[in-house]
Amino acid sequence: IAALTLSAFVFDGCKKGPDDPFMSIHTRKGRMTGDWTVKAGSGTDVSGSSTTTWTYDGTTLTQTPGGSVSETMTISFVKDGTFKTVTTKTSSGYSDVETVTGTWNFTGKIGDDKNKDHVVMKTLVDTDVQTLGSSSTTSTDTYTGDDAPVLIYYIDELKNKEIKFTWNGTTTSSSGNSSSTGSYTMNQ
Q1: Which candidate, 161, 146, 174, places its Cα nearest to that of 39?
Q2: What does R_g of the chain's alpha carbons equal in angstroms?
Q3: Residue 110 and residue 114: Cα distance in Å, rounded?
Q4: 35 phi/psi in degrees, rounded to 5
Q5: 90 contacts 40 by C-beta, under 8 angstroms
Q6: Which of 61, 83, 89, 102 has the fewest CB atoms below 10 angstroms from its CB?
Q7: Phi, psi of 79, rounded to the nearest 5 degrees
Q8: What is the reported pLDDT for 18?
Q9: Sign of the alpha-carbon dihedral angle for 45, 179, 119, 105
């Protein structure tokens, strides 16, 4: 009984998100590292009186208003704390490939948040290659220090072969309010 009680405390540390497995033989960082493909997603972005909803099925991003575009997104989390995302959008005669590299880490316990229940992704280099017909343009933004853009995702589920990120945030300012909610499901 003592061994079962002790193991319940040890394995409970693995479960951070509500849909995490009860126990895992892999560490949280071990489950996170690897090459991931975004398979599904949905969300809503509000800016002032304008609202955009979007859905993603692994191959097509559909925005209302806006329409649809073919899209693929991959994310690689490396054990050394670096990451790389590649997002490719294509339509008739047009392509846009954005590659973002940077660093990642889990958050610590802050307020009601559990230890390691969010991932922080800090962008260091963002390269965008747009091709229209036979013409191509490349732009690269490089960031250092505290000026680097940061994305924070709540880890709703972290299994060995599946991750589900969610986010929900609001900005209130004198020039207008904005909010963003959504989720991504990724598989290896």
Answers
A1: 161
A2: 19
A3: 7
A4: -100, 125
A5: no
A6: 89
A7: -60, -25
A8: 55
A9: positive
Q: What are phi and psi of 10, to 5 degrees?
A: -65, -50
Kindly give the residue spans of alpha helices, DSSP state H, lying in the chain: 2-12, 28-32
Whole-prediction pTM = 0.82
Give the list of residues 6+ apart from residue 51 with CB closer than 8 angstroms, or none: 44, 45
Amino acid at 68: S
Q: Using pLDDT thresholds of 50, 70 and 90, give the confidence band for residue 141.
A: very high
The answer, yes or no, to whether residue 7 has pLDDT greater than 90, is: no
CB burial of residue 186 (10 Å; 0-12, 13-18, 19+) = buried
Nearest CA among 82, 73, 172 for reference residue 119? 82
pLDDT tens track for 84-134: 999 999 988 899 999 999 999 999 888 888 888 999 999 999 999 999 999
Cα Dmax for the chain:
70
Q: Which two tokens stand for residue 188?
A: 């290896």
φ and ψ at residue 19, rounded to 5 degrees? -105, 10
Token digits for 54? Answer: 């979007």
